[in-house]
Amino acid sequence: MAAARTAVPGRGRTLSLASGKAGPDRRWRKRDITAAQLFLIRTLEALLGATFPDPPDAPATRGDAFDWIHAHGGNPTYWQEPPLPTNL
What we know:
Layout: E1 5-8, E2 13-16, H1 35-48, H2 62-71
Helix pairs in contact: 1-2
């Protein structure tokens, strides 16, 4: 089975979700969640009405955050603030 790849507009790169930097076996996935990830999670929660699961007895990791952000339509590796709608 081929790895799932997502093109990154304007960067000439692809993000492999099955291996490489975003793969499930990387050590970074076990580290504490970053401030940038938390900001993006809180933004998605507010926009989508979704809730990020972060139980106090097992705090979320960077890998948990990455997976949640991606599952909710975000690109956690190359996030950029979207442009404002043209009708505003």
